[in-house]
Write a structure and sequence with these properties.
Blueprint (H helix, E strand, L loop, with lengths): L1 E2 L2 E5 L5 E5 L3 H32 L3 H29 L5 H5 L2 E5 L7 H14 L6 H9 L6 H6 L1 E5 L7 H7 L15 H13 L5 H16 L11 H15 L2
Antiparallel strand pairs: 1-2, 2-3, 4-5
Length: 249
């Protein structure tokens, strides 16, 4: 369900996650930064291969080296997005600078397959020039998706700005003297769900608050290794969030 530039995603855990869709301006800014980085990387690759290729007196060897350089340049173009969006939770350096990221429409982690589809179709979005096809698609689609997003089932969203300060959380959960929890198996998306619950829990009706805490805590308990994690659901979520914010920062 969508309201204005917001999208409500029902996660596999059955929890609704509200996100804000990234607009054309922030996406264009992120694209500009990424293009600058890619331009420098491609220039280095092409200059290096050209220098080596033309330094050799053999025309066949020079042509081979230049062909390798073209393959390397193609690898840089594909590898840049595959590397950053897969390993950095949907963020290239440009996206990170503008506080936006790519996520799956169902809230599941962004995988290599989805990133590969987005990257391949980027070359169509570039047509006929200056991302014209991509810009039109973003403007006319309900979820601000370019063709790559439509094919991969992804959207670009704004990073959620934390409204729960570390100081407030530290006042609720003091970790000093407590044994650390191993929360490495808890994903960033799951931490975002917990943070969202903690931020809005006081506005929920008691029954809804307890039910939502239980639905969140249930799947997460199996991902946390701790001798003292056998607490009520809300206390567990507060402690989990404190561990992620303070012990792992």
């Amino acid at each position: 369900m969508q309201l204005d530039d917001r999208l409500i995603i029902e996660t596999p855990e059955g929890v609704n996650l509200e996100v804000t869709l990234a607009g054309l301006g922030s996406r264009a800014g992120a694209c500009f930064i990424d293009s600058l980085i890619l331009g420098v990387a491609l220039l280095v690759v092409l200059m290096a291969t050209a220098f080596v290729g033309f330094a050799d007196t053999s025309a066949d060897i020079s042509a081979l080296i230049l062909g390798i350089g073209a393959l390397l340049a193609t690898g840089v173009l594909f590898g840049y997005y595959l590397l950053f969006e897969t390993l950095n939770s949907g963020r290239t350096p440009g996206k990170a600078a503008f506080g936006i990221r790519v996520i799956k429409l169902d809230g599941s982690p962004l995988g290599l397959g989805a990133v590969a589809i987005r990257t391949l179709l980027r070359f169509i979005d570039l047509l006929p020039t200056a991302y014209a096809v991509g810009i039109i698609s973003i403007l006319v689609s309900a979820r601000h998706q370019r063709l790559g997003d439509l094919a991969a089932g992804t959207v670009v969203v704004r990073e959620r700005q934390p409204t729960l300060s570390s100081a407030v959380l530290a006042g609720s959960i003091a970790l000093d003297g407590l044994p650390p929890w191993d929360t490495s198996a808890v994903t960033e998306n799951e931490v975002g769900l917990v943070r969202r619950f903690v931020e809005r829990r006081t506005s929920l009706a008691p029954a809804n608050r307890a039910g939502l805490a239980a639905s969140l805590a249930g799947p997460l308990r199996s991902k946390v290794s701790a001798p003292d994690a056998n607490t009520d659901d809300e206390a567990f979520l507060l402690r989990l969030l404190a561990e992620k914010l303070h012990r792992e920062r």
